[in-house]
Amino acid sequence: MTDASRPTTRTRLGGIVRQAWRDFLSVYYANTPVWRWLKSGALVFLGFFLWMGGNVLTAYWTEAIALRYAIAYGFVLIGWGPLTHLLVVPAVIRLRRTAENPTVRRIARNGSTINFTTFLVIVALVGTLAPGVMLLDFSSGFGADGGDVTADLVCETGGDPITCELETAEGVDHVVLLSGGEEIDRSGEPPYAVSAPRESLSDGPSGAQFVVELRGLNGETLRRFVRTV
Prior knowledge:
The chain has 229 residues and is of the alpha+beta class. The protein folds into 2 domains: 126 residues, no CATH class; 77 residues, Immunoglobulins (Immunoglobulin-like, Sandwich), CATH 2.60.40. It contains 5 helices and 8 strands, in the order H-H-H-H-H-E-E-E-E-E-E-E-E. Strands 3, 4, 6, 7 and 8 form a 5-stranded antiparallel β-sheet that branches. It has a 3-stranded antiparallel β-sheet with strand order 1-2-5, with no helix packed on it. A hairpin with a 5-residue loop joins strand 7 and strand 8.
């Protein structure tokens, strides 16, 4: 065999990529009941993982925009995955075989592209709007620098200013309310009531937010609460 007739590395890689794509499509369009449920279950699991994992990470990185869209991707995928493989894919396969109208056949040929594009548009909208049902508050359970602190923070965010106080507090010297890293208010006596004008709050993933820190005698942070208005 001459050098010219030998397959080049690029040709071999191209063949591998094409075969992988065909394998992916064969799994994507596998239409037996077992495959439908397996693919739907896998996507629900992936969506739940992204949704919950993103919400946990948001408790640490409250300003990370990319996390909000990862949460939206998982949140939408929980419903869109089963919808795709239980309804959309079987309908596309059926229309490709039976549709006689040229317009319907054209739509069926591009059904997967239309479905995926619609999914991405919905993810972008949900990630931008960030509805409250999508975002879970894990932040109150994460303390900074630990400590033997028992506290129950109650906030009233419906009015202006917003107010917070501790119903129970053990081991706390004073409480500080922060927004955008700046101290807005502090209190050193029970019930450690603090307040802030709504206009002073910083923007978070799902709206205006503020931070309440419980501090010790030396100013160390014993516990940290992030609240969204």
